[in-house]
Write a structure and sequence with these properties.
The chain has a domain at 35-40 and 92-139 and 170-407: UDP-N-acetylmuramoyl-L-alanine:D-glutamate ligase (3-Layer(aba) Sandwich). The chain is built from twelve helices and 16 strands. It has helices spanning 51-56, 69-81, 93-105, 124-130, 180-184, 202-216, 228-233, 235-245, 253-260, 265-272, 354-375, 392-407, and strands at 35-38, 42-48, 64-66, 85-90, 109-112, 114-116, 136-137, 142-144, 149-155, 161-166, 188-192, 221-224, 248-252, 278-282, 288-295, 331-338. The strands form three sheets. It has a nine-stranded mixed sheet, sandwiched between helices. Keywords: ATP-binding, Kinase, Magnesium, Nucleotide-binding, Purine salvage, Transferase.
């Protein structure tokens, strides 16, 4: 058989040269730049059903129904048998964020949580693995005998959405499966507030251990709030956790109001800076805000038009780079805002995961700063202990663009990174 192309005369594997090392998909703490996320592993199932189906199982239409595992399994099996399921998506706000980070950075991340020990074809665990980037290191997941969580969205002919939540074993993660050595060398760790409501469940203590390990190793901690109702129910506990452990907080305008009592995004972000060092606040069609601290000695004035709202001239120093408040001799609060990219998509296909995409962009910038500091510690980029590589304004651009990429697709997870060049973007995402 004749093969196309020219043959190389040089031996493919010359014995006189060192052997090439195969790529490692397992994180190596001393060599790699990575982030670590902890999540309640869950799969989102989309199904079309009739009103009679809901009545058969006693499911409240238009509501979020927490259902015990046996009943949820019966519902799921009938949906499978009747071909009513249109899509499976790997879910979980942190699972989405970690996956998106690995797609954007084209680099490793670590996911902590549980996974079914026995994975069958077509099972929730199978779909979770199929929809997660191969760059996400899942070697540290805890095996459990049961299923991971399932969130079933049932759509009736009138368009009404009804939710069935089956926790499965997703809250069974124990502190023993929190790898301290992996966390200590991470560029950042990311968690959500959801495990805080899992009272008397192992995952709550596992997350506290993770936060404590990160604080001891001085690794930046990023937290995403869950829902408005979660914040309302556990407001004091969340505030205590933020003040004790968290550096970066991500939330939407409804969660921000529930946390701080301020409906205005700027005022809510300003109040949240009493607890954390940086705040990402997504406000739907209004765009997103990024707020934080920098030191007065390195503040940089913007060349963009000055904006005023509840705070006057709030974006005056948005060309500054974020710092932790404790590292500032004279802390200055910095605010930046950006409208939706290109005015927002003409047709929004999916809002689920847009905030997770924006958060992944921020984590990418924090990790880029960590990598650059490890590689070139004497660079002028590190004359101050900055939290991120880029300015507030540049991070806003990046986060905004990633949110847009989520909004124009059906799934909450990116399937590929952003285009390297776009005519509508005059600058790179990172300062040079």
């Amino acid at each position: 058989m004749k093969f196309p192309g020219r043959r190389k005369l040089k031996h493919y594997f010359p014995v006189s040269q060192p052997k090439l090392t195969l790529p490692s998909y397992e994180v190596r703490p001393e060599l790699d730049t990575y982030i670590v996320g902890l999540d309640q592993t869950i799969v989102d199932v989309i199904a079309n059903v009739s009103d009679e189906f809901l009545q058969k199982y006693g499911i409240g239409k238009g509501l979020s129904n927490l259902v015990e595992h046996g009943k949820a399994d019966l519902i799921y099996q009938e949906l499978v048998g009747s071909n009513a399921i249109s899509d499976h998506f790997a879910g979980g706000t942190i699972g989405n964020t970690v996956h998106n980070y690995s797609v954007l950075a084209d680099d490793k991340s670590v996911l902590l949580g549980v996974m079914s020990s026995n994975i069958q074809l077509g099972s929730p665990a199978y779909h979770y693995l199929c929809h997660t980037s191969s760059k996400v290191d899942m070697n540290h997941l805890q095996g459990v005998p049961g299923d991971i969580g399932r969130g079933i969205t049932m759509i009736t002919p009138d368009g009404e959405r009804t939710f069935v939540i089956d926790p499965g074993d997703m809250d069974e993660l124990t502190p023993a499966y929190i790898p301290t050595d992996i966390i200590a060398k991470a560029a950042a760790i990311v968690v959500s507030a959801y495990p805080l409501r899992a009272t008397n469940q192992p995952i709550q203590q596992a997350m506290i251990k993770m936060l404590s390990d990160a604080k001891t190793a001085e690794v930046p901690v990023v937290m995403s709030l869950g829902t408005k109702h979660l914040v309302e129910e556990h407001r004091e506990l969340i505030q205590q956790t933020l003040a004790q452990y968290v550096n970066v907080l991500a939330m939407n305008e409804l969660e921000a109001e529930a946390l701080t009592g301020f409906a205005d995004p700027l005022l809510a972000a300003e109040a949240a800076l009493d607890y954390v060092d940086m705040v990402l606040l997504t406000a739907g069609p209004e765009g997103l805000y990024l707020c934080g601290y920098t030191d007065a000695s390195v503040k940089r004035e913007t060349t963009n038009p000055i904006k005023s709202g509840a705070l006057a001239d709030y974006n005056e120093f948005e060309f500054s780079r974020p710092m932790q408040k404790k590292d500032c001799q004279q802390p200055v609060k910095v605010y930046s805002h950006i409208d939706p990219y290109l005015g927002g998509p003409e047709r929004i296909k999916n809002t689920n995961g847009a905030g997770d995409g924006a958060l992944a962009a921020i984590l990418h910038d924090i990790a880029a700063n960590h990598f650059h500091r490890q590689t070139l510690p004497l660079s002028s980029k590190h004359e101050q202990p900055y939290l991120a590589y880029s300015s507030f304004a540049q991070i806003c651009k990046y986060a905004n663009r990633v949110s847009y990429a989520i909004l124009v697709q059906n799934a909450p997870r990116l399937s590929k990174g952003l285009p390297e060049k776009e005519d509508s973007l005059e600058e790179s995402y990172w300062d040079r």
